[in-house]
Design a protein that fits this description.
Elements (H helix, E strand, L loop, with lengths): L1 H4 L7 E4 L7 E2 L19 E4 L6 H14 L8 H8 L32 H6 L7 H9 L7
Length: 145
């Protein structure tokens, strides 16, 4: 199965359960995953027995990848329109706490972010939209870096 997944022409690799090359997993076509002592989510470490194991596979897969991936990604019209919007949810002026003029904002009337947890709970929204999630990741001082 590993040979098929990586499109390798030979079995010149070894599989291990640990990165320090202990607990070897035997290459077998008849042995099941359970029989090899593996469970769902287990990590395997593959080490080549020869230096040129991946050279032939990489060179052929790189040319295939280049031909499959389009050079220009076309973005949907709705995504373009949503990226132009500010994305914040306006909040009405609080008559008790806001003591400012109409052209300014205070802490009590500043708009909600689309990913604000209190607003989502208040409106009983279980899942935020994809664009809200992207703004959450790319917002703040670090800008998602």
């Amino acid at each position: 199965m590993v040979q098929k997944s990586f499109e390798l022409s030979s079995l010149q690799f070894s599989l291990f359960k640990r990165q320090n090359k202990t607990d070897s997993v035997d290459n077998s076509r008849t042995k099941t995953v359970k029989a090899a002592g593996l469970n769902h989510g287990d990590r395997l470490f593959m080490f080549p027995k020869t230096q040129n194991l991946f050279q032939n596979a990489n060179s052929s897969s790189q040319t295939e990848t280049k031909s499959k991936v389009p050079s220009v990604v076309v973005e949907d019209e709705i995504d373009i329109e949503l990226s132009k919007l500010e994305g914040s949810i306006p909040k009405s002026k609080d008559k008790l706490n806001c003591q400012h003029q109409g052209n300014s904002q205070c802490v009590h009337c500043i708009p909600y972010d689309p990913f604000d947890e209190e607003y989502l709970k208040e409106q009983k929204i279980k899942f935020m939209s994809f664009h809200s999630y992207i703004r959450k990741l790319s917002g703040g001082l670090s800008k998602g870096k």
